[in-house]
């Protein structure tokens, strides 16, 4: 074969590889509202930036007639490209080839780009659309999953890892996304579960649909497995691109700052009037967040899960920050098992990748009750405490209203190495609220009162005295636990200036193999 013939052979092979499992299967994928592996990569990366690896790889199996079915690329497209000019490594499973099932060579392709991403220090993005292990390959397929899991573990906290679930992800396949930093699921077309509806019914007798067992809604509201539920694949890919904007390439870099046209000293008069006169009345913490951050842009994570706490990314003066905030409009902003886990995970994510943390506090305490105690609220609450205490990134805390009991300590208090702790004049910092406190402090005297009128008068008297002492931030400020009491309208300016001073901050944890955090 002459040179031109060899070039034509290359071009033909490339075209065959790009067809995946063939036009008929591509059309089937489109008919289900799903894109192909290469279409997803094309949407994700900057135009013309994708460099594909291992296009000509095929499986090596000779069992069950597989030797008669060979497809170039073997069901996964791998390589690297750029997002807004920054390099990322990506793999995208191809459902048109053996249902995207994972073979030995399929796994090796994924492992290769993960290894290279670690060498160069770049994010790893996995787009999952797979029927699971390729049954015909048996233990070789299982070992392939384990090889991927091990790399997920080694990459954790070193480079950002993002998983998009745009189709099935079942059995052992779910554990790779679970080991990554962020999971995005597309609504209606994706699902994740360890065992499917048929096995569930045969073992437990429970009849349940695929969607109700492991759909995007379930994992974004009930289990908390998914950080984002995207209405479509296009939205899911847009979320990946947006998320990368807030993260560094690796743990040795800082997040990239961008030019900001929003004045750093912008004052918001609305903040001076946003807190209700009645301290038991709810308000939406997101209204405060939008008024503080650059251009009212806030990328909220876990939006539908544990709504009593808010976590997500924003920018202040063009610099990315992570925000953790209690949400008084849901369960009064109380900390419970789900909220503690959600916030602890996010704090550790930010700390791993050098993203400063802004904490906005309005928390009446931990949720009481046997369900919480039996569920391990002690351990789960300790996760959040541990995460804040371990974090070495700049931490700025603003107490908006309530900060009671152990929850005060947990929410990035000065004693957990909060760097700069501010409070609004509306802040109430105490062991507990007035009503509960006077029952303990003055309960006997109140009970001894002769009439109901006398009891009410004593309760009102003691509540007023307690509120005068603790329903303000000045008692905490007196001891230096609050660095300053700030006017609400100046919050953006004061927080930005605080983070400016912390740009060169250095905190060091004791040398250790690793911590033994409460799990």
Which class best fits the helix and strand makeup?
Answer: alpha/beta
The end-to-end distance, rounded to whole angstroms, is 63 Å
Specify the oligomeric state: single chain
How does CATH name the architecture of the largest domain? Answer: Alpha-Beta Complex
Task: Walk me through what this model shows.
The protein has 3 domains: about 240 residues, 2-enoyl-CoA Hydratase, Chain A, domain 1 (Alpha-Beta Complex); about 190 residues, Alpha-Beta Complex (2-enoyl-CoA Hydratase, Chain A, domain 1), CATH 3.90.226; about 40 residues. Helices cover about 40% and strands about 15% of the residues. The chain has 20 helices and 17 strands. The strands form 3 sheets. Strands 10, 11, 12, 13, 14, 15, 16 and 17 form an 8-stranded mixed β-sheet that branches. A hairpin with a 7-residue loop joins β10 and β11. The radius of gyration is 27 Å and the shape is elongated.
List keywords for this structure.
519 residues; alpha/beta; 2-enoyl-CoA Hydratase, Chain A, domain 1; 8-stranded mixed beta sheet; 7-stranded mixed beta sheet; 39% helix
Compact summary:
This protein is an alpha/beta fold and about 525 residues long. It has 20 helices and 17 strands.
Chart the SSEs and their pairings.
Layout: H1 3-18, H2 23-31, H3 37-44, E1 51-53, E2 76-83, E3 86-93, H4 104-120, E4 124-128, H5 139-155, E5 161-165, E6 168-170, H6 175-178, E7 182-186, E8 191-193, H7 197-204, H8 210-214, H9 216-221, E9 228-230, H10 233-246, H11 285-292, E10 298-301, E11 309-316, E12 319-326, H12 337-352, E13 357-363, H13 370-374, H14 377-390, E14 395-404, H15 405-410, E15 420-423, E16 428-430, H16 434-441, H17 443-447, H18 452-470, H19 474-478, E17 484-485, H20 491-501
Parallel strand pairs: 3-4, 4-5, 5-7, 6-8, 7-9, 12-13, 13-14, 14-15, 14-16, 15-17
Antiparallel strand pairs: 1-2, 2-3, 10-11, 11-12
């Amino acid at each position: 074969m002459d040179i031109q013939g060899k070039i034509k052979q290359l071009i033909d092979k490339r075209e065959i590889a790009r067809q995946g499992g063939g036009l008929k299967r591509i059309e089937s994928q489109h008919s289900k509202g799903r894109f192909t592996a290469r279409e997803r990569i094309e949407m994700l990366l900057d135009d013309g930036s994708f460099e594909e690896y291992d296009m000509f790889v095929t499986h090596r199996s000779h069992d069950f007639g597989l030797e008669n079915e060979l497809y170039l690329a073997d069901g996964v497209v791998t390589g690297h490209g750029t997002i807004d000019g920054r390099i990322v490594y990506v793999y995208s499973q191809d459902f048109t080839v053996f249902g995207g099932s994972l073979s030995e060579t399929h796994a090796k392709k994924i492992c290769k780009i993960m290894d290279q991403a670690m060498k160069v220090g770049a994010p790893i993005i996995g787009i999952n659309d797979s029927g699971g292990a390729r049954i015909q390959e048996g233990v070789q397929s299982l070992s392939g999953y384990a090889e991927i899991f091990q790399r997920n573990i080694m990459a954790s906290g070193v480079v950002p890892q993002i998983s998009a679930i745009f189709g099935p992800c079942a059995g052992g396949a779910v554990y790779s996304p679970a080991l990554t930093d962020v999971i995005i699921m597309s609504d209606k077309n994706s699902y994740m579960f360890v065992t499917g509806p048929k096995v569930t019914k045969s073992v437990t007798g429970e009849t349940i649909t695929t969607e109700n067992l492991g759909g995007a809604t379930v994992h974004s509201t009930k289990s908390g497995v998914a950080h984002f539920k995207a209405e479509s694949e296009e939205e899911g890919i847009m979320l990946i691109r947006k998320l990368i904007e807030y993260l560094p390439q690796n743990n040795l870099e800082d997040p990239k700052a961008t030019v900001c046209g929003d004045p750093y000293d912008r004052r918001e008069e609305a903040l001076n009037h946003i807190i209700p006169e009645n301290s038991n009345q709810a308000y939406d913490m997101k209204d405060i967040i939008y008024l503080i951050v650059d251009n009212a842009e806030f990328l909220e994570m876990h939006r539908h899960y544990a709504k009593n706490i808010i976590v997500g990314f924003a920018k202040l003066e063009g610099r990315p920050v992570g925000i953790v905030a209690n949400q008084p409009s849901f369960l009064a902003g109380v900390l419970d098992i789900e909220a503690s886990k959600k916030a602890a995970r996010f704090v550790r994510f930010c700390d791993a990748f050098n993203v400063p943390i802004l904490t906005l506090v309005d928390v009446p305490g931990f949720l009481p009750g046997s369900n919480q105690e039996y569920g391990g609220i002690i351990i789960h609450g300790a996760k959040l405490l541990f995460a804040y205490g371990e974090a070495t990134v700049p931490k700025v805390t603003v107490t908006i209203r309530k900060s009671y009991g152990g929850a005060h300590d947990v929410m990035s208090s000065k004693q957990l190495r909060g760097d700069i702790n501010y409070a609004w004049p509306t802040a109430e910092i105490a062991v507990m609220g007035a009503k509960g406190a006077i029952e303990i402090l003055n309960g006997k005297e109140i009970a001894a009162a002769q009439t109901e009128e006398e009891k009410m008068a004593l309760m009102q008297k003691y509540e007023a005295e307690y509120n005068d002492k603790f329903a303000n931030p000045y008692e905490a400020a007196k001891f230096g636990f609050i660095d300053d009491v700030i006017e609400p309208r100046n919050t953006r300016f004061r927080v930005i200036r605080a983070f400016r001073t912390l740009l060169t901050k250095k905190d060091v944890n004791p040398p250790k193999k690793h911590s033994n955090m409460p799990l």
